[in-house]
């Protein structure tokens, strides 16, 4: 992927505190294109796609929704909870998209590992292949995310 002028502008928005106070790129020195390409390589190495990861994230969020704020165990070894943080957030990409600030937490009981994401994370992975920059608050490491959400 080439660093187009649009990507450069988008990268500035992501690095700034315009949408979320701490920005989406954390202290990652890499360009947006480099971050996306590197994560995509990890996803491919795992034999997955961004779409399949996002689909599974959505499935887990949906499983937790009927028991808002409480833990539920939709499958053996997987405990999930979702909570609302007041308000909504827009996708930083240039298209109309507003998301409820909902946080899903998944705890893998057999691995004793947990991970959290927002509805915006799920969208950005599905539509933009973006897992955020290293050091950002909601950075998701694709390999850790996959290890936790998929029972293998
Ligand atoms: Zn978007």
In short:
This protein is 38% helix and 22% strand.
What labels would you give this structure?
single chain; 152 residues; alpha+beta; 4-stranded antiparallel β-sheet; 5 helices; 38% helix; globular; binds zinc ion
Cofactors and ligands present?
zinc ion
Please report the number of helical segments: 5
Order of helices and strands: HHHEEEEHH
Strand content: 15-25%
Principal-axis shape equals: globular
Q: How big is the Rg?
A: 15 Å
Helical/strand content category: alpha+beta
Straight-line N-to-C gap: 32 Å
Largest beta-sheet characterization: 4 strands, antiparallel
Low-confidence stretches: none
Compute the number of strand runs: 4
Strands in their spatial order, largest beta sheet: 1-2-3-4
Averaged pLDDT? 94
Query: What's the number of domains?
Result: 1
Helix content: 25-40%
Q: Could you explain how this protein is built, in words?
A:
There is one protein chain. This protein is α+β, with helices and mostly antiparallel strands. The chain has one domain. The chain is built from five helices and four strands. It has helices at 5-15, 32-45, 50-64, 119-128, 142-149, and strands at 72-75, 78-90, 98-108, 113-118. Strands 1-2-3-4 form a four-stranded antiparallel sheet. Bound molecules: zinc ion. The site of zinc ion has 7 residues, from helix 4.
């Amino acid at each position: 992927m080439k660093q187009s002028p649009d990507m450069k502008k988008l990268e500035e928005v992501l690095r700034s505190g315009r949408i979320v106070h701490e920005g989406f790129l954390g202290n990652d020195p890499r360009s947006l294109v480099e971050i996306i390409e590197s994560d995509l390589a990890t996803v491919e190495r795992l034999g997955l796609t961004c779409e399949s990861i996002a689909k599974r994230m959505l499935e887990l969020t949906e499983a937790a929704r009927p028991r808002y704020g409480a833990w539920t165990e939709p499958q053996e070894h997987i405990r999930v909870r979702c909570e609302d943080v007041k308000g909504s957030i827009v996708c930083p990409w240039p298209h109309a998209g507003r998301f409820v600030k909902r946080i899903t937490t998944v705890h893998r009981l057999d691995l004793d590992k947990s991970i959290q994401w927002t509805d915006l994370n799920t969208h950005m992975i599905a539509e933009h292949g973006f897992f955020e920059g290293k050091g950002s608050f909601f950075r998701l490491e694709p390999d850790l995310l996959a290890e936790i959400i998929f029972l293998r």
